[in-house]
Amino acid sequence: MTETKLEIRRLVFADLPTVVAIERRAFPTPWSLAMFVLELSKPEGICLAALSGDQMVGYIICSRFDQVWHIMNVSVDPDLQRRGIASALINEILGRVGDGAQITLEVRPTNAPAIALYERFGFLAAGTRPRYYQDNGEDAVIMWRTEATLRGALDDVPAAGARPVVAP
Questions:
Q1: Which contacts qualify for 147-154: CB closer than 8 Å, 24 or more apart?
Q2: Containing H/E element for 66?
């Protein structure tokens, strides 16, 4: 694994053609342009781009819902994965939301590399969303990073251990 020298900056509307191109290459059910426009339009969100030289190599979309941050999308150009880009983006989000923030995300249970990445940052699995992914009906693992998960516990995670949450 070779680390990539990166600049991380705010994602802007002009970046969206590149974002959509990466998204389409990285995911079986990519977000639409409209979904990215919506997230960039939210003043409470944090949307970041990772650049290597003048090339965008990844991005992260994080929204705030009341007191909880939700990592909505993390993507790295498939040709450049496993070089620390997603880690750098997550590190930047963690720095911006501050210590003590509650952060959640969903991930495919079959995406072992992503789960391992999130676990390295203190995220723990706390439930599932049945049939979350539209392309194949796969469930999603709901992961949280809180003060408790950093200690290996789930005591401050909303609804941890409860029945699976069904996506709307």
A1: 147/100, 149/122, 149/123, 149/124, 150/122, 152/124, 154/124, 154/126
A2: none
- Number of Cβ atoms within 10 Å of the Cβ of 128: 17
Catalytic residue among 39, 92, 118, 132: 118
Domains of the chain (ranges, CATH numbers): 1-63+72-97 (3.40.630.30), 99-168 (3.40.630.30)
For 121, what's the count of Cα atoms within 13 Å in the CB-facing half-sphere? 27
The model's confidence at residue 132, banded by pLDDT at 50, 70 and 90, is confident
As a whole number of Å, the CA-based R_g of the chain is 15
Out of 23, 39, 92, 106, which one is annotated catalytic? 106
Q: Is 59 a catalytic residue?
A: no
pLDDT number for residue 10: 96
Mean pLDDT of 125-129: 92
